[in-house]
Amino acid sequence: MRAKAIGTYISFGATILSIIIIIITNVLSICGIENNSIINMINDLFIGVLGGAILSFVLTLSEYLDVRKRTLENYAGAFYSLIVKYYQIRYVYIDDETKLFSKFDRKRKDCELERILNVEHEDYSFKTYLEKCKTFVFDSDDVDDNFVIEMLENKYNDLDRKIKTALKSYIDLEEHSLRELSNEYGNIYFISDVFRKNKIRTKLYNEFNKPVIDMYYQIKVSNSHFKDYLSGEVNNLPAIVQILEETNSKIFCIEERENMTIIWESFADDLYDKYKLLEAKINRQEYKKPERVPVMGISKHIDKNNQISME
């Protein structure tokens, strides 16, 4: 693209130079300057040059516009492949119940039930959770402690599985190299940027490359902890849940409504909006803002005691 732009500049410059010389020689000829034969020869020469320069300019400009379109399409394609990776990130809704179960230790299976029920996150304990579920009456002699522990353990295992799936999706994003996007960006060269100090190219970088690169390296920091947990080097699930919640807040947006909590893929949606805008400009089409679809909806239920629960 750069070579085509330079070729266009040269042919355009040759055209302008030929026009200027032809004008000068014609003025000199009209003014009756001596050596008209030399002036006429120069005039005839540059009339021929002008014809070739105009033809060259038209051809090089046409080639530049074609290469620019293909280069921008390749760049948009590389950008879209990253957007797909962000859409593939799995979301885990983290609330007090999630944080509570992250503290459940599977090694406590042989411990007393009362010791487990007293484990709490802030004011929310396992006893509160089971009472909310209205599954057991804890002062009853019929309750099988081991069965209760097994039920809690199954809930913990389900949470652990979901969290590991989410962590792997973040790691998969990191494994998708930014090299393709950087290479395609490096191929972009606008004619107008020569006189505008790369203004268009810089704007393209700030709106497309920079948000993706900044988020990529933020996620990479979180992934160092996620990899340790998945490899078994670290077994501190509450800490991983906290890091995951912080990382999710950069990618997803939580909207609280009266009877529902809506989860939006805000970062990926913003990138997709930019992609569709760039695509419309490349193809000279009208831009239509894409419709956003939530990744998750969690209904709220209010019981007779005006306590809100999630499903």
Describe this structure in words.
The longest helix is centred in the first third of the chain and has 52 residues, at about 35-85. The model is unreliable at about 135-140 and about 300-310 (pLDDT under 50). The strands form two sheets. Strands 3-4-5-6 form a four-stranded antiparallel beta sheet. It has a two-stranded antiparallel sheet with strand order 1-2. The protein is of the alpha+beta class. β3 (about 255) and β4 (about 260-265) form a beta hairpin. The protein contains ten helices and six strands. The protein has helices at about 1-30, 35-85, 95-100, 115, 125-135, 145-175, 180-185, 200-230, 235-250, 265-280, and strands at about 120, 125, 255, 260-265, 295-300, 310. α8 runs antiparallel to α9 (about 235-250). The protein is rod-shaped, with a radius of gyration of 33 Å.
Write the layout of secondary structure elements.
Elements: H1 2-30, H2 36-87, H3 96-101, H4 113-117, E1 120-121, E2 124-125, H5 126-133, H6 145-175, H7 179-186, H8 199-231, H9 237-251, E3 253-256, E4 260-264, H10 266-282, E5 296-302, E6 308-310
Antiparallel strand pairs: 1-2, 3-4, 4-5, 5-6
